Amino acid sequence: MKPETTNTIRIKTPFKKEGRLVVLGGGESGIGAALLAQAKGYEVFVSDKGVIKNKFRELLNQHAIPWEDTQHTKALILNADVVVKSPGIPNTVPLVAALKEQGIPVISEIEFAANYTQANIVAITGSNGKTTTASLTHHVLKQALSVGLAGNIGASFAKQVQANNYPNYVLEISSFQLDDCFSFRPHIAVLLNITPDHLDRYNYNFDAYVASKFRITKNQTATDYFIYDADDPVITNWLEKHPTKATLLPFSLHKRIENGAYFENNTCIITIDNNQIIMPAKDIALQGKHNIKNAMAASTVAHLLKIRKQTIRESLENFHGVEHRLEDVLKINKVNYINDSKATNVNATYYALESMDAPTIWIVGGEDKGNDYTELFPFINEKVKAIICLGVDNKKLFENFQSMVDIMVETQNMSEAVKIAYKLAESGDNVLLSPACASFDLFENYEDRGRQFKEAVRNL
């Protein structure tokens, strides 16, 4: 499989490859888009309603790219030929609506950068597990290929296209990024799972969110591949009604798969065109059922790209996960402190609680995105001995869980939450930060929340 042949069929771009390009949002992806646009001959302007970080300001000044922050000057934006929008800006804001009314294309950094590379693109999405699976896939592929890691992780895709232009990319992609993709066509698309998340952004319409995730395969052809979880009824039901042209490679814990991956007798079996890789689950560094699925997805990608079987096995054995995802922090007085700050929705916390093998003190809470906590109830009853609510508004958590545990307290301070957990914990217990909520009520982002947790644990 030669990367240069994978994108020979091109979808017409929805934007002009010349003229004035405005970037809305001066973060990692926006600055990368600005640098790539300038390199491709656009007149570039960057506008951010918040404050642009000093390191990004310096980069813009260094490249003589005009910018503004703490405001959006309409006169400098509505004269664009194309707008690259940060995924954090909803399409419903008046400025974006005004751009669309004028017929000005509004696209994502992913869409923009993909038009300037002939690279072999592996795009990974899902409600949970994206970062782990993208990082694991990159870890396997980089043993044999020149490959970049971008999207929702690492340096921006556009910046890498401008500076390195790797022959291969692994992209972690959110639904927000996919919403502003129109011609984007990955050679290999991976859809890990779909559970209710970010529904506030989709008018609490789950079907709209599902449709957004499936945009990852929209432009694929029969020469491309779509890897997906065959155990996920939301995915399989949608595929029945909306078939993709791509070659299907499912993975499953419960069904035998002829072409794809499945799990049997504690062993992962990946088969593509009768060529098999067999991997005992005990040899996979990341444990838990969800990580077996992540490993099967990553291995299927690697198998497709002709990575040696031994290389795949060794990579799965020595990969040790990503920060803020079920990350072991410290063991103090035989109590294990675990940072799962990246669990920003109920399904991610489901996996975390499922993997707990000891009585657990659970730190939960934050900005609720319309959460339904019902699926967590069996784990609360079975594994959780105390709950510490860490959020501005914890009313919904008390309503759901107060009757299930003997101890339930609340705080708005991470250091205090960890000190309370320390007092409650006994030898052999786990203290788990797995918030099931967004972080923006008390923290800058989930990374800030996770790092504050780790710092508080180390200060005990």
From TrEMBL:
Cell wall formation. Catalyzes the addition of glutamate to the nucleotide precursor UDP-N-acetylmuramoyl-L-alanine (UMA). Keywords: ATP-binding, Cell cycle, Cell division, Cell shape, Cell wall biogenesis/degradation, Cytoplasm, Ligase, Nucleotide-binding, Peptidoglycan synthesis. This is UDP-N-acetylmuramoylalanine--D-glutamate ligase. ATP binds at G126, S127, N128, G129, K130, T131, T132. The keyword ATP-binding applies. It is found in: Cytoplasm. One of its GO terms (molecular function) is UDP-N-acetylmuramoylalanine-D-glutamate ligase activity. It catalyses: UDP-N-acetyl-alpha-D-muramoyl-L-alanine + D-glutamate + ATP = UDP-N-acetyl-alpha-D-muramoyl-L-alanyl-D-glutamate + ADP + phosphate + H(+).
